[in-house]
Write a structure and sequence with these properties.
By secondary structure, the chain is α/β, with parallel strands linked by helices. It is built from 9 helices and 8 strands. It is 29% helix and 23% strand. The longest helix has 11 residues.
Length: 244
């Protein structure tokens, strides 16, 4: 299962926003040579890593999306993330799971595959919607259901592809149980929130985000490694390009 099946709408492929949030989590790029983009779609986000000289491999179930990703320089393979990855052991320095794990049924199976193809010193970046930010909580309280506010404009509850709704602590606990430890967390001030960016200065948004990260962050970002670290760094983005 890949992002291409659910995310054909252009608003999901906002490359400037997506790469900004990924770069905020990335370790030193000089130590990264090979990247795997899970559910790469049309490669709009990870194409920026290709331009930086990295070898980026992409997998997705959407053949049309993969053709576009190949034009952007990705080395693509059609694959269902529920059934395994078509790569050799210890192939990648970095794995991107950008807006994809919320679609996956078999998290343990995927975790085993990621552990197999990721090098011992490699890293995983996970980006996933926060279904419990203040806007979503108020919507649920008002009877609008669990569909994330950023998706309501193009999908219905019956068509919604998200099947996992975890808080940050639950997300970290799962991956740590699979042998992946948090090295860095990233929060970004949610777009279209109760306090519009145009009416709040950058310093205020950052201060509010630090005070209430799980209420005001529209998405979570995690950098994971196979070995624990003494200090988990936290990054706060008071704004993101094009608001995603």
């Amino acid at each position: 299962m890949g992002s291409g099946r659910f995310h054909e709408q252009n608003q999901i492929f906002q490359a400037k926003s997506g790469i900004k949030k990924i770069l905020a989590l990335l370790p030193n790029l000089t130590k990264i040579k090979t990247v795997l983009d899970l559910g790469c779609g049309r490669g709009a986000v990870s194409a920026a890593l290709v331009k930086k000289g990295l070898r980026v491999f992409g997998v997705d179930v959407n053949h049309k999306a993969l053709k576009e990703a190949r034009k952007r320089g990705l080395k693509v393979k059609k694959a269902d993330l529920e059934t395994g990855l078509p790569f050799k052991k210890f192939k990648f320095d970095l794995i991107l799971a950008n807006d994809i794990i919320e679609h996956i049924y078999d998290w343990q199976g995927l975790a085993q595959e990621l552990n197999r193809v990721l090098r011992p010193a490699g890293k995983i970046i996970i980006v996933t919607p926060n279904h419990f930010d203040i806007r979503s909580r108020l919507a649920i309280l008002g009877g609008r259901g669990i569909v994330h506010w950023s998706s309501r404009q193009w999908t219905t509850a019956a068509q919604y592809g998200h099947i996992r709704f975890l808080k940050l602590q639950e997300l970290e606990a799962f991956w740590q149980a699979q042998g992946f430890y948090p090295h860095k967390r990233r929060f970004n001030y949610m777009a279209g929130g109760l306090l519009p960016q145009k009416l709040t200065p950058k310093w205020l948004r950052k201060r509010l985000l630090k005070a209430f990260p799980e209420l005001l962050s529209g998405k979570y970002g995690l950098l994971l490694g196979k070995y624990p670290t003494q200090r988990v760094e936290t990054v706060y983005l008071p704004e993101t390009v094009q608001g995603m």
